Amino acid sequence: MLRLILPLLLLIGSALPALCDDTVPPAGADKAADMQSMSDFLRASPDCREFTDSCSYCTVVDGAARCSTPQIACIKKAYQCTVRSTQ
Question: pLDDT averaged over the chain?
Fold first, then answer.
């Protein structure tokens, strides 16, 4: 009987932290929803030719953004223009 009860108690005990009410969401969860979309950024900065969000590096070619693959374990930030056109 003890062989049945002990594993059952361990199983229930390991699931309890997932059911807690006081778990804290990740810090960036709310910020991601507030961040500007890439298309909004490009509309607001038509002279921007290269930009980054600290995860991907993008170049604007023929009005479309071409971006690198996001880096491992990056924390996305607001888009920043790194190169503007001189025209």
Answer: 81
Going by C-alpha positions, the residue among 84, 40, 76 that lies closest to residue 59 is 84
- Paired with 59 in beta bridges are 50, 66
Name the H helices within the chain: 2-19, 29-34, 38-44
> How far is residue 57's CA from residue 66's CA, in Å, rounded to a whole number?
8
Which tens digit of pLDDT belongs to each residue from 63-75? Answer: 899 999 988 888 9
pLDDT for 5:
82
Residue 54's nearest CA partner among 87, 72, 79, 21 is 79
Tell whether the torsion through CA atoms of 40, 46, 49 and 52 is positive or negative: negative
